[in-house]
Amino acid sequence: MGSAASASRLTKSQVVSLSEAGLSEVELEDLIEKDPSVLGLGEVVLIEGQRRQERAGRLDLLFQDRDGESRFEVELKIGSLNESHLIRVIEYWDIERRRYPGYAHFAVVIAEDVTSRFLNVIQLFSGSIPIIAIQVNCIKIGEVFTLSFIKLIDSRTLRRDDRLETKAESSDRNSWVQYVGPSIMAIADECLATINSAAKRQRSLNYTQQYIGLTEGGRPNNFVYFEPLKSRMRVRASLSPLERWVKRLQDSTMDFKPGSDELFIDITLQTLVDNKALIDEILLEALRQDEA
């Protein structure tokens, strides 16, 4: 009886092409504009559709996260991904990141079919280009069509060492001081002093254009690293498990986000004073786990 009842709730479906469903690229773009949450990029808002690029055509969609720190250059393709489409999204990403270097930029390519050949190419690119590949599927159920968006590659989810030990462009302390000011940089100095107070091997700050990491004997050792912002320092600490620290941070005055195996903590000069003991505990636990 139970299996018969379950079967009565099931219905047939089939995957069809967007063109079979009568959906054009313009209509797909309009759908995503109205509800960008379908892409699974987090809370993002539309900056501009069909954004003109000097001597390079038009970018389909430009989104920005609600924190105002990341931008997503999105290109759509009805049918199979091809070489020109992949090159175009990277070109648009490069134009935007050079024009607006204050944001973290991500190239997003969306297509109906991303072959294994292009997946391999995108994976190679993702070591140096932050790229997200999404496959859109059209599913027909009766006379109704539905769309599903599946992330095949998301460079934001790479392991910490993969993400940070790629070819990050070098910088220096003076460049960061000019960008965020000496008081924000002092937060990184204070965190480093805490780490070195208990470290078996002393660490140093490693300045790149994307972040400030740590080195041990001249080699990257990014169990903690820093992203300086104009009003605060974002500290990313690799920790597992996170539950204990999440509970304690919820009782603090700091803004934070838990990742899969990282804490993202925004520290201002005031919260550094108010929460110094907790910050030190988190840094020292990250150090302990790294040296274990």
Q: Can you give a write-up of this model?
A:
With 292 residues, this protein is of the alpha+beta class. The protein has two domains: 147 residues, Trna Endonuclease, Chain: A, domain 1; 128 residues, Aspartate Aminotransferase, domain 1, CATH 3.90.1150. 36% of the residues lie in helices and 34% in strands. It is built from ten helices and 14 strands. The strands form three sheets. Strands 1, 2, 3, 4, 5, 6 and 7 form a seven-stranded mixed sheet that branches. A hairpin with a 3-residue loop joins β2 and β3. α7 crosses α10. The protein is elongated, with a radius of gyration of 22 Å.
Outline the low-pLDDT stretches: 159-167
The Cα radius of gyration reads 22 Å
Count of individual beta strands? 14
Largest sheet: 7 strands, mixed
Overall shape: it is elongated
Number of domains: 2
Count of helix runs? 10
Q: CATH first level of the largest domain: which class?
A: Alpha Beta
Tell me roughly what share of residues is in helical segments: 25-40%
Please trace the helix and strand order, writing H or E for each element.
HEHEEEHEHEEHHHEEEEEHEEHH
Q: What fraction strand?
A: 25-35%
N→C terminal distance: 56 Å
